[in-house]
Amino acid sequence: MIYPLNSLQKLGFEDVKNAIRNFCISEMGRGMVDKIQFMSNYDQINKFLRQTSEFKNILENDQPIPIQSFFDIKKIAEKAKIEGTFLSEDEAFQVYSSLQTVFAVIRYFEERTGLYPNLEALFEHLPIEKNILKHIEAVIDVRGKIKPNASRLLAEITTAIAKAEQEARKKIDQIYKNAQANNWAADGSLTVRDGRICIPILAENKRKVKGFVHDESSSGQTVFIEPEEVFSLNNKIRDLEFDKRREIIRILTELTNQLRPYVPILLSYHGFLTKLDFVRAKALFAIKIEANMPVLLKDAKLKLINAKHPLLLLSHRESGKPVVPLNMHLDDQVRILLVSGPNAGGKSVAMKTVGLLQIMVQAGLLIPAAAESEVGIFKQLFADIGDDQSIESDLSTYSAHLSKMKYFTEHASGKTLILIDEFGTGTDPLFGGPIAEAVLEQINQKKSFGMITTHYSNLKLFANSAAGLENASMVFDNVNLKPMYMLEMGKPGSSYAFEIAQKIGLSPHLIALAKSKISVQQRKVDTLLVDLERDKKEVFDSKIELDKQQRKYKSLLAENETLKNYYEENKRNLIREAKLEAQQIIKNANKLVENTISEIKEVKADKVKTQALRAQLHEALKVNEIKPVQKPKTEISQDEIVAGDWIKMLDSDNLAQVLEVAKDNLIVAFGELRSVVKKKRVEKVANKQVPKEVKRFGTSSYTDSAASFSPEIDLRGKRGEDAVAELERYFDRAVMFGFSSFKVIHGKGDGILRKLIRNYLKKYPQVSKMEDEHADRGGDGITYVYLK
C-alpha cells in the first residue's frame, strides 16, 4: 500500500514506467507497463525480478531471442469466436506471424532448457498447435494475400478474369489505335474511370466512337469513352470480380471456422507474447540504468550498496556529470535514519533514491545498485514530500503535513517504510520542533522503518539518544564550501548556514549580527558539528592515503619476493649445471688415467715411454682443469645503454631489458619483475644474442599485464596438478598486482577439484578467507578468494 497515491509521482516512479513503456514494441506490452504496481507478496516479487534478470542476461550474454512480429491477436481471437464472422486476409496473416514468433521463442528456450527457468515458466504447459499455421498456410501466401489456388473455383475464376482482361485489352488497344489514326484521340493514353478502361477522345469527335461516356476533362475538351465493343467484356470482368470476392469470403469464413476451436489457445499465445514484450522492456531499461538484481529478503530490512537514482543517472549521463553512489542500511538496530546537513547537499535526493528503489524492487524491477544490496519487503510505504496545500480542503502547507503525520502515526506498523522530507517545517520552529519530535517518537514506538530529512537540532539530539534511530549527514567540504553528495551514517550534520552565507557574499556585519542572535548552546552545537565534519574529512583523507601506501607496499613486497624466487631458481640451475660439468670432467679424467695405466702396462713400464705417457696425462688434465672465469671489466659510458637495450648481469649472466636510464642506475625488467641496478654491474648485449623465449617473456609491460589481468580464473575440466600449477602462476600475479580478491571457477562435480584448490590456497598467508559464490551466480562451483 502506498500513501498518499501521488507519492509514486513525487518519487519519480511514473517517470520510470514511462521510460520502460518506450522499450515496448507492442500496445499489449505498454498496457502491462501501465499495470505495474507496488506488491508485497515475496514469491510474486521474486518471480518478476528473476524473469527480468534472466532476460537481461540473455540480452547481454546470449544469442538474441527471435522476436519477429507482435500483433494484438486477442482482438482477432475475440472476433473469430463469434459464429458467422470471418477474419480478413490481414488478420489471418497477423495471427500467422505472431504464432511463428511464439513457436520460434519456445524453440529458443527448449534449446537452452534449464538455463532460464523463470522465463521458461511463461510458456509452461502451453501447447504447440502447428495445425493453426497449416490451416492459414493453405490459403494465405507469404505476403499476407489469398493464394490464387486457395480453392479450385478461385483458381478458375482467377484464370477467367485474366483471360477476359487480356481479350478486353487487346480489343480496346485496336480501337484506340484506329482512333489515333483518324485523329479522334486526345493526347494521353488509355485510362481507368469507375474501374473501366476508357479511351481519351476529343469532345468534337465523341459521336464518332460508339460507347459509354464515363467522364470528361475539367476543360471539357476531352471525354473518356468505354467502347461499345468492350463494354460486355468489362461487364464480364466485373461479374467475375464479384464472384472472386464471394469465393474469397467463403474461403476466409471456412478458415475462421477452422480456427474457432483454437481461440482459447490463441488467447494463451497472446498472453505469452504480451508478457514477453513486457519482460523484455524491463530488461532493456535495466541495462540502460546499469541495474542488478539485489538479494531479496522476506523481512523488512534494507541495505543499499553503491545505489544510484535511476532518473538522475540518465539525466547526468546526457550532461556528462557523475552520480555519487549511496550507501545506507536499515535493520533492527537502525530502523529510522535522520538525515541532516546543508541545503542543496543531497538530503532529499538520497531519501527519494531509497524510496524509489524500494518501490521498484517491490514492483518487480531491477535497481541500479550493487548485486550485494539487500532489499526486504514492506507492507506499506508512507511518504510526505513537497508542498501539498489544498485550496479545496482549506489546508495550508503545515496543515497538510500534519494530516499526513496523523495518518502515519495511526496506521504505521513494523512493516511500514516512512519517508519524510524536511520534517517539522512550515510553522514556528519553536513549536514545530517539539511536534515533530513527538511524531518521531510515536513512529519509533511502532517499530516502523524510515528515512527522514530535517534541520531541527532537537530531532538530532533525540535521534542520538533514542534506540532504533540514528543520525546521518550529507558530507560537506567546509574548506571549499561545497557539498560532496555523500551520505554518512552515524553522526548529524550542520546546516552550514553561516558558511554558505559567507561564500555567497553576505555582508560580514550581517553574518556577525545573525550569530549574535542565536543562543550560545545552539552556536556550540553547530560549531561542534562543523569541527566534527572537518575532523572526519581529515581522517577520511588520511585513511585513503594510508590504504594507497599499504597497497604500494604490498605490491613492492610481492615483487621483491618474486624477484628473490627468480634469483634462487637461477642460482639452483647454475649450481646444477656446474655439478654436471664437474662430473663430466671427472669422468673424462678417470677415463684418461685408466687409459694411461693400461698403456703403461702394455709397454711393460718402459721408463722412457712411461715418462712420455705421464707428460701426455699431465697436459690432458691441465686442459680439463676448472678455473674461475675472469670476466673483463668494461667501462660503459652513460650513452652506450638506452631504454630498450638488452643487458647481462656481470655477476649472474642473467638477461634483462632496460626500461629507463637514471644517471648511474638502470631500471630493468626480468620478465614481469622490475629492479634497479648499477651500470657498472652490467654489460650491453646485442639484440640478436638474446633468445626469442627471453624476448617474448621479457618485453611484456607491467602496466599492460596489470590492466589485462582478469579477476577470475577458470579451471574447469583441468587435471588436479595442471589446475594447481596454473593457479600458482595466477596467484603470484594477483598478489604482485595488488588485487584484494579474485574468483576461481572450478565447477561443482564431485567437489574434488574445489577441495584441492582450497587446500592449496590455505597454505598462503596472503589469503584472508574463502567463500562460495552466491547461489544464483554459481554457488559452490565458484570460490571467492579474499587477500590481505
TrEMBL record:
GO molecular function annotations of the record: ATP binding; ATP hydrolysis activity; ATP-dependent DNA damage sensor activity; endonuclease activity; mismatched DNA binding; ribosomal large subunit binding; rRNA binding
GO biological process, one term: mismatch repair
Residues forming coiled coils: 546-606
Binding site for ATP: 341-348
Positions of the Smr domain: 713-788
Tagged with keyword RNA-binding: yes
Pfam families tied to this protein: MutS_V, Smr
InterPro entries named in the record: DNA_mismatch_repair_MutS_C (IPR000432), DNA_mismatch_repair_MutS_core (IPR007696), DNA_mismatch_repair_MutS_sf (IPR036187), MutS (IPR045076), MutS2 (IPR005747), P-loop_NTPase (IPR027417), Smr_dom (IPR002625), Smr_dom_sf (IPR036063)
Key words, A-Z: ATP-binding, Coiled coil, DNA-binding, Endonuclease, Hydrolase, Nuclease, Nucleotide-binding, RNA-binding, rRNA-binding
EC number: 3.1.-.-, 3.6.4.-
Function of the protein: Acts as a ribosome collision sensor, splitting the ribosome into its 2 subunits. Detects stalled/collided 70S ribosomes which it binds and splits by an ATP-hydrolysis driven conformational change. Acts upstream of the ribosome quality control system (RQC), a ribosome-associated complex that mediates the extraction of incompletely synthesized nascent chains from stalled ribosomes and their subsequent degradation. Probably generates substrates for RQC. Endonuclease that is involved in the suppression of homologous recombination and thus may have a key role in the control of bacterial genetic diversity.
Subunit architecture: Homodimer. Binds to stalled ribosomes, contacting rRNA.
Entry similarity comment: Belongs to the DNA mismatch repair MutS family. MutS2 subfamily.
Name the UniProt record assigns to this protein: Endonuclease MutS2
Source organism (scientific name): Pedobacter cryophilus
Gene giving rise to this polypeptide: mutS2
